Amino acid sequence: MSRHSAFHVATRRLRRALPVLACAAGALAAHAQSGMPAWKGEGAVRHVCGGIGSDESNAMRAAMKDHPLALLFARNDGAYLADVQVEIKGADGASALSMRASGPVCLIDIPAGRYTIDVTTKEGQSKSQPVTVGGGSKTASFRF
Asked: Cα–Cα distance between 41 and 92 in angstroms, integer?
């Protein structure tokens, strides 16, 4: 193959690849700009926890209104708290979600209903709070 033909083949391949690369770069940029960590879970129940760092905290707090349930964890002095074990049980006592909160703010997509949220810090302090989800976003705050 001549040098001229090889150049044209490479140019055609690059032209085909550019739109794909541009879409991938756009998706990565949108995710980076959102400041949100990745969601976990699938189907009717999924969650995301974060809020460490001002950009992520601001993004998480701004998104609270768009999800049925938000959890906030802090110490009594107001300092944010992470690494909290969370158990959410339905009215029938069955587990709806079990997770470890990696940040002080968690957004949870969960079907409407009555739940009990049990949380335990890594130091062993526990708290429980009932919540009814549905008809707007609810926030359950836990201070230790």
From this structure: 21
